[in-house]
C-alpha cells in the first residue's frame, strides 16, 4: 500500500549502488523493453552502460538510452570518442553483463565466441558474470541449434533468464517472449549475489504475510500484514547470493526472480510448509504475522445471519508456535510486532522462542509495521545491546537483518 506516512520521505532502496552493469541490446522487436530494463537498473543505483548491436539500434535508438542512463551508450565499434577499445573498457569495468533481449543470432555468436559487434565483443572481453534473456519467435526458440547454444552458455556459467510464454510479435502465443523487465533486473541482482554476495551457497527460508484462520468457507480471522517485510527479506537474501524459499500468504510482487514461493493460508499450513522446507537451511526468518489463535472449529457452510439475539460466539484455540518449535543448526530470526513495551516484550520472545535475533517492530509508530513501504525496528540478540535503526524502506531493514545473519553464519563457521 503506498501513500502511508514515511513512503515519500525515506530514501528508496538502491540495491545495485556501486555496481556497473553493461546492458547489451540486440536486434529484436522486444528491444524497446530494454528502455525499461535500463531505467530500472539505473533506479536501483547501478551505473549502466548500453552496448547495442547495429540491428538493435534500428528498434531502440542509442539516443533514447542516452536520456535514461548515466553511463556510455554506443552502437558503433568504430567510433573511438569514448575509448579506442570500448569493448575492452566496458568489459573490464563491468560488474555484470546483461544481454536483454538476446536474439537467436547473438546467442549463437556468444556460444561460438564470435565478436563482431559491441555486445558480443564485450562478452569476450569481460570476466564479469553474464546473464542472457532470450526473445524470439517460439519456433526459433525451440530450434535445436538455439537450444544447443543455450546449453553451451549454461555450461559456461551464463545465467539464462526466461523466455516466457505469451503473445509474440507474430501475434501467436508461445514460448519466446522476453521476461518482464522487473524479472530481468531481479535476475541480474541474483547473478551478482551468486558471484560475490555474503550469503552465496547459503539457503534461507523466509515467511511473509498474515495467516487467515477460517471461520466458515467465506470468512476468516486475519491481520493487516501485506507480506512486504517478508518479500523484502527474500529479495535481500537473494541479492546476497542465497538460495531463497518463501512461504507466504500473499502473491509475491514482480521481480522476486529466483525465489521459490509456496503459498499457504492458515497458521497450520504455514507450520507444515516450514517443517517440510527447513531441511538443510542456514537461516529461518519468520516475518509472517502468524495467528496465535484460530477458531476451534470452522463451520462447514456459511454462517447465516440470525438476528441480534443469536449472534454467533467464536471459540478460539491456540495455534502451534512455528518458530519456537523449529530446531536445527540454522540461525533463527523472529519478529515482534508490538504496540506497547516494545523492547521488554521483544526480549521475552527472543528467549522464549530460542531465537538468535529478534526484530522488534513498533507497529504503532508512523510509517512502520503493517502495510507500509517503510519500517522502524530495533534488533535484539542474546547478550547484546539493542540496535535501533531509523525509519527505513523495508528492503533496507531487510539488508540490516541479512547482514546480521551473514555475520552470525560466518562467526559459526570460524
Ligand atoms: O507484512 P507487512 O505488511 O510488511 O508487515 C510487516 C510485519 C509488521 C507483519 C512484520 O514486520 C512483523 O512484525 N512480523 C511479525 C508479526 C508477528 O506475528 O509478531 P508476534 O510478535 O505476534 O510473533 C513473534 C514471532 O513469532 C514472529 O516471528 C512470528 O512469525 C512468530 N510466530 C508467531 C505465532 C505463531 N503461531 N508462530 C510463530 O512462529
Number of helices: 14
> Helicity, in percent?
25-40%
Q: Return the average pLDDT rounded to an integer.
A: 94
Bound molecules: ligand PMT
Category from helices, strands and their pairing: alpha/beta
Describe the structure.
- By secondary structure, the chain is of the alpha/beta class.
- Helices cover 33% and strands 22% of the residues.
- The protein has 14 helices and 22 strands.
- The strands form 6 sheets. It has an 8-stranded mixed beta sheet, with helices on both faces.
- Strand 20 (377-380) and strand 21 form a beta hairpin.
- Helix 4 (86-93) packs across helix 6, helix 5 (104-112) packs across helix 8 and helix 10 (228-239) packs across helix 14.
- The longest helix is centred in the last third of the chain and has 20 residues, at 394-413.
- It is elongated.
- The mean pLDDT is 94.
- Bound molecules: ligand PMT.
- The site of ligand PMT has 28 residues, from helix 10, helix 12 and strand 17.
- Ligand PMT is lined by residues 209, 225-229, 267, 286-290, 292, 319, 321-323, 334-337, 349, 353, 361, 363, 369-371.
Main traits of this protein?
14 helices, eight-stranded mixed beta sheet, single chain, 22 strands, 414 residues
Amino acid at each position: 500500500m503506498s501513500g502511508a506516512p514515511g513512503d515519500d520521505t525515506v530514501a528508496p532502496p538502491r540495491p545495485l549502488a556501486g555496481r556497473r552493469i553493461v546492458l547489451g541490446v540486440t536486434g529484436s522487436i522486444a528491444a524497446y523493453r530494454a528502455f525499461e530494463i535500463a531505467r530500472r537498473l539505473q533506479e536501483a543505483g547501478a551505473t549502466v552502460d548500453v552496448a547495442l548491436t547495429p540491428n538493435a539500434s534500428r528498434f531502440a535508438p542509442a539516443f533514447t538510452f542516452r536520456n535514461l542512463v548515466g553511463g556510455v551508450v554506443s552502437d558503433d565499434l568504430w567510433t573511438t570518442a569514448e575509448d579506442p577499445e570500448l569493448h575492452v573498457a566496458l568489459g573490464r569495468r563491468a560488474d555484470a553483463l546483461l544481454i536483454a533481449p538476446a536474439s537467436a543470432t547473438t546467442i549463437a555468436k556468444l556460444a561460438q565466441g564470435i565478436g563482431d559487434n559491441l555486445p558480443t565483443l564485450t562478452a569476450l572481453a569481460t570476466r564479469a558474470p553474464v546473464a542472457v534473456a532470450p526473445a524470439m519467435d517460439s519456433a526459433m526458440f525451440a530450434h535445436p541449434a538455439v537450444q544447443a547454444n543455450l546449453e553451451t552458455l549454461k555450461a559456461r556459467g551464463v545465467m539464462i533468464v526466461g523466455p516466457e510464454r505469451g503473445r509474440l510479435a507474430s501475434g501467436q502465443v508461445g514460448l519466446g517472449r522476453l521476461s518482464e523487465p522487473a524479472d530481468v533486473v531481479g535476475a541480474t541482482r541474483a547473478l551478482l549475489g551468486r558471484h560475490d554476495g555474503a550469503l552465496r551457497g547459503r539457503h534461507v527460508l523466509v515467511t511473509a504475510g498474515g495467516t487467515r484462520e477460517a471461520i466458515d468457507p467465506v470468512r476468516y480471522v486475519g491481520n493487516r500484514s501485506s507480506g512486504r517485510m517478508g518479500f523484502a527479506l527474500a529479495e535481500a537474501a537473494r541479492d546476497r547470493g542465497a538460495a531463497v524459499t518463501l512461504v507466504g500468504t500473499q502473491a509475491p510482487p514482480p521481480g522476486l526472480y529466483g525465489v521459490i514461493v509456496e503459498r499457504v493460508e492458515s497458521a497450520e499450513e504455514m507450520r507444515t510448509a516450514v517443517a517440510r522446507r527447513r531441511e538443510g537451511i542456514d537461516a529461518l526468518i519468520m516475518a509472517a504475522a502468524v495467528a496465535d489463535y484460530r477458531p476451534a472449529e470452522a463451520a462447514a457452510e456459511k454462517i447465516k445471519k440470525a438476528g441480534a439475539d443469536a449472534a454467533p460466539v467464536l471459540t478460539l484455540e491456540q495455534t502451534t508456535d512455528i518458530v519456537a518449535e523449529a530446531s536445527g543448526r540454522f540461525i533463527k530470526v523472529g519478529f515482534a510486532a508490538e504496540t506497547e513495551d516494545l523492547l521488554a516484550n521483544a526480549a521475552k520472545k527472543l528467549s522464549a522462542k530460542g531465537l538468535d535475533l529478534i526484530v522488534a517492530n513498533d507497529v504503532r509508530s508512523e510509517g512502520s509495521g503493517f502495510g507500509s513501504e517503510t519500517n522502524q525496528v530495533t534488533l535484539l540478540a542474546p547478550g547484546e545491546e539493542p540496535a535501533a535503526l531509523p525509519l527505513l524502506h523495508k528492503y533496507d531493514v531487510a539488508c540490516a537483518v541479512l547482514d546480521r545473519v551473514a555475520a552470525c553464519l560466518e562467526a559459526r563457521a570460524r
